[in-house]
Amino acid sequence: MWAAIALMMVTTWSACSKNEDDTTPDNKNNELRKISLTRAEQDLVNESNNFAFSLFRQVTSDKSEIVSPISITYALGMLNNGAAGETQKEINKVLGFGTAGADSINAFCRKMLTEAPTLDKLTKVMIANTIYMNKDYELKSDFINKAKTFYDAEPETRDFHDGKTMDVINQWASDHTEKMIEKVLNEQSFNPDAVSYLLNAIYFKGTWAEKFDKDNTKDETFKGYSADKQVPMMHQEHEFNYAETDDCQALCLPYGNLAYRMTILLPKEGKTINDVLKNLTAESWERYQFMDRAYVDLKLPRFESTTDVGLNDIMSALGMPRAFDPYLAEFPNFCNVPTFIGMMKQVAKIKLNEEGTEAAAVTVIGEYVSAIEPSEPQHVQFFANRPFLYVISEQSTGAIFFIGQYMGD
Question: What are phi and psi of 366, to 5 degrees?
Answer without folding.
Answer: -110, 120
